Amino acid sequence: MYNEEYKRWLAADLADADLSPELRRIEGNDEEIKDRFAVSLKFGTAGLRGVLGAGTNRMNIYVVAQATQGLANWVKTQGGTQTVAISYDTRLKSDVFSKTAAGVLAANGIKVRIYDAAMPVPALSFATRYYNCNAGIMVTASHNPAKYNGYKAYGPDGCQMPDQAADIVYEEIQKIDVLNGAKQVSFAQGVEDGLIRFVGDDCKKAFYEAIESRQVRPGLAKTSGLKLVYSPLNGSGLVPVTQVLKDIGITDITIVPEQEYPNGYFTTCSYPNPEIYAALEAGLKLAQECDADLMLATDPDADRVGIAMKCPDGSYELVSGNEMGVLLLDYICAGRIEKGTMPENPVAVMSLVSTPLAKAVAEHYGVELRSVLTGFKWIGDQILGLEKKGEEERFIFGFEESYGYLAGTYVRDKDAVVASMLICEMAAYYRATGSSIKQRLEEIYTQYGRYLNKIDSFEFPGLTGMDKMAGIMTELRSNPPASIGKYKVTKAVDFKKSEETGLPPANVLLYELEGGATAIVRPSGTEPKIKTYFTTLGKDLAEAQAQKDELAAALKPLFS
User: Fold this and answer.
1) Which of 3, 26, 377, 543 could hold 538 in an S-S bridge, CB 3.0 to 4.6 Å?
2) Which pTM value belongs to this model?
3) Which tops the pLDDT comparison, 44 or 545?
């Protein structure tokens, strides 16, 4: 079957000039053909994500058109404004894919609001809500390597599409021939017909105003003298992040020159992920040269942000997603209490794989901290629940350990723009009081205990990768470990059992260990990886690290 599909593509007059040469190049190579055509990219709650190229198992204009036709079929059943918002990042072909999607929607009589330049995930979520859209599309592969692209679908609330709607869209997609089943008009025709319109300046202005309204101590940054080095990692964060920072008074910003402007090849770092050192390396070097107080980097679609903080000895130390989540929670709580802006019965939300240290901080400030499944849509779901009760102002902060943060209810996905603003404001505040982010973090550890949170990842590439991952999770459920290393398992939680957790079912296993440590095993929702999340607590960092190393060594053979 896959050879027949390959031959059909090979014989077709393909509109993308890059695809036919690729197909001719693999002629006679069964493995290469199979890899591209044996399966199709599956549309799920994270939309589509895959390697760029020809075939049903690749990201290309035909797969994008097919997915968008499926989305259009769903939108047409929803009533409402019959409008879809579209944004895109700086990846290879992101602009092409976004215009392809717009043309399919227009051909189906659906109105489109599309940004006129690359803009990040939170801007898409905001526009979806601002224009009362039925759905939103963000063309991005987030922080994946340059050979990837993807397509995230959003519901009318600005959250990533829920399971039920995504399942319906996937059913519709399967009915559509990938090469010629989608209705299409050119982007230019859609504009001429009045169905495709650009996002207006009013929407962009409202987006920036919504972010800037989340300042904890307004005006403080203007007199702080904070020196910042910033890298958008060649992505979509450059304009919105610098705009907001300058608006609040942070003007001493040095941009990493080789990572400033759009470059979908990401030539300075093969993996543009602010969670890893290599992505921040150029910025760290520049920070040392500039003697900056802070180095900050956003990923290509600007929904995640990573930082390096200056230490008393002049060196720079990376801050983990868990540490920054705790620092921001602590800063927002203390600042809002000081300013009298803390709502009654405040609520913060974190993913269940994030650090328990946040629970201790929230309890100290009298904040209700809710734990939800991994994926920012579950944090958005908590905001929606509050909104339905007319209590959305109770939400003060949400975060995931994977460098995603949100303060405010104006969007329903993680927002590196507001996070960048708050991180810089926090750094400015501590600088003005003779302290620093580093010093405050150490104070938090002294107050609550030396927690350590670490993640290990195990990759399972190729067509058999997903089967191997499923087999490992099945084995762990069939034969749950009684101990991990020398630590006895005191409680095992299977998050597929909703009746026990009170949460929607999820492919996650949690092990509570004697002494207070935890280990969580979870397959990634977007990549062929199984991740293990360790939380240990020691009298100091060395003790917590030693325990983590022992637990990791004990689990590693399971993933070989």
Assistant:
1) 543
2) 0.94
3) 545
Take residue 353 and report the two structure tokens written for it.
């794989």
Tens digits of residue pLDDT in 456-502: 999 998 778 888 999 999 999 999 999 999 999 999 999 999 998 98
User: Residues 6 or more apart from 176 whose CB is under 8 A from it?
Assistant: 66, 69, 70, 182
- 223: Cβ–Cβ under 8 A, 6 or more apart, which residues? 249, 432
**Residue listed under structure tokens 């809500």:** 129
142 catalytic residue (yes or no)? yes
- Looking at residue 526, its pLDDT comes to 67
Check if the beta carbon of residue 82 is closer than 8 Å to that of residue 75: yes
Report CA 231 to chain centroid distance, whole Å: 17
| Planar angle of CA 335, 340, 345, nearest 5 degrees | 90
According to DSSP, the β-strands at 135-139 and 83-88 are parallel
- H or E segment and range at residue 511: strand 509-513
Give the SS3 label for residue 82. coil
Whole-number pLDDT of residue 20: 98
Q: Which H or E run contains 384?
A: helix 376-388
Q: What's the angle, vertex CA 493, arms to CA 487 and CA 498, rounded to 5?
A: 175
User: In whole angstroms, what is the distance from residue 419 CA to residue 105 CA?
Assistant: 33
C-alpha torsion sign, points 45, 51, 56, 62: positive
Sheet holding 483-484, edge to edge: 450-459, 529-538, 518-523, 509-513, 487-494, 483-484
- Per residue in 508-540, pLDDT (tens digit) is 999 999 988 999 999 986 678 999 999 999 989
Catalytic residue chosen out of the listed positions 94, 142, 231, 354: 142
**Phi, psi angles (nearest 5°) of residue 311:** -100, 165
Residue 13: CB atoms within 10 Å: 5
Rg (CA), the chain: 24
Is 411 strand, coil or helix? coil
Average pLDDT, whole number, for the chain?
Answer: 96
Q: What is the pLDDT of residue 445?
A: 95
Contact (Cβ atoms closer than 8 angstroms) between residue 403 and residue 274 = yes
Per DSSP, the residues of 157-177 read: TSSBPPHHHHHHHHHHHHTS-
Residues in Cβ contact with 154 at an 8 Å cutoff, skipping those fewer than 6 apart: 85, 124, 125, 128, 135, 136, 137, 138, 160, 161, 413
Closest by alpha carbon to 484, among 524, 456, 523, 526?
456
Choose among 138, 89, 338: nearest CA to 238.
89
